[in-house]
Design brief:
It contains 10 helices and 9 strands. With about 250 residues, the chain is of the alpha/beta class. It has 2 domains: about 150 residues, TPP-binding domain (Rossmann fold, 3-Layer(aba) Sandwich), CATH 3.40.50; about 80 residues, SIR2/SIRT2 'Small Domain' (2-Layer Sandwich). The strands form 2 sheets. Strands 3-2-1-7-8-9 form a 6-stranded parallel sheet, sandwiched between helices. The protein has a 3-stranded antiparallel sheet with strand order 5-4-6. Helix 5 packs parallel to helix 10 and helix 8 runs parallel beside helix 9. It is elongated. The protein starts with a helix and ends with a helix.
């Protein structure tokens, strides 16, 4: 049986599927990944959370990066894979999308925000580290570029940071708990475009498999979890997903 046929059969038989996406989901939209040669971290060193909090110069550098777009995480459009996943959600086949991506493309493709569980946050806005108030980047950009002001919270004066999870920053507990609930409730867990090397996020496929769900991994390169998967497809995500969930 062809790989796409096998995946179609698994999706058709599933009562409640969960999709887990990584950087490979968005590279087809032109967004660079993190760890590959030429990826984000090969071009610039990450700024650790503790350094952002402790050092104003590090905060200024982080905001320079955010407003220059050097990381390339925002401004792209969803690709055919995103839209195919959105159709599976709309048709009730997929209950939620757990994502390691911060690019907001799942929401842009039409998936309700309540069904997108962002393990590593979102690069499209900022939050106060003290009170959690959301801040829009366009507003912060004006004061930063115009007056050189490092953003602080307009309500409490606390430090404001782009709403991504930095190295050394705790994972969002509420989102992690929701992702665990969704993982344990599914009977099919589909990984799209993740190398499955970043924990604790990469623990969800293992959790699903141990709980009796079928596990599918679609990724350009092999992963360390291929040996526990029911189906592995080393291929581009967009074309195969668009074939499995064509537009009406």
């Amino acid at each position: 049986m062809l790989g796409s046929d096998a995946l179609a059969k698994l999706i058709g038989a599933a009562r409640r599927a969960v999709i887990f996406t990584g950087a490979g989901m968005s590279t087809e939209s032109g967004i660079p990944d993190f760890r590959s040669p030429g990826g984000v971290w090969s071009r610039m060193k990450p700024i650790y959370f503790q350094d952002f909090v402790a050092d104003a110069d590090m905060r200024r550098e982080a905001w320079n990066r955010a407003f220059s777009g050097v990381a390339g995480w925002v401004g792209a459009e969803p690709n055919q894979g995103h839209y195919a996943v959105a159709r599976l959600v709309a048709r009730g086949k997929v209950s939620s999308v757990i994502t390691q991506n911060v690019d907001n493309l799942h929401q842009a493709s039409g998936i309700p925000a309540t069904q997108v569980l962002e393990l590593h946050g979102n690069a499209g806005y900022a939050t106060c580290l003290d009170c959690g108030l959301r801040h829009e980047l366009d507003v912060l950009k004006q004061s930063f570029l115009g007056r050189g002001e490092i953003p602080v919270c307009r309500d409490c004066g606390g430090l404001v940071k782009v709403a991504t999870v930095s190295f050394g920053q705790p994972m969002p507990p509420a989102v992690m708990r929701l992702a665990e609930i969704e993982t344990l409730a599914c009977d099919l867990f589909i990984v799209l475009g993740s190398s499955l090397v970043v924990f604790p996020a990469a623990g969800f496929p293992v959790m699903a498999k141990r709980n009796g769900a079928r596990l599918v991994i679609v990724n350009r390169d092999p992963t360390d979890m291929d040996d526990i998967a029911d189906l592995v497809l080393n291929t581009e995500i967009g074309p195969i997903m668009a074939g499995l969930a064509p537009a009406d």
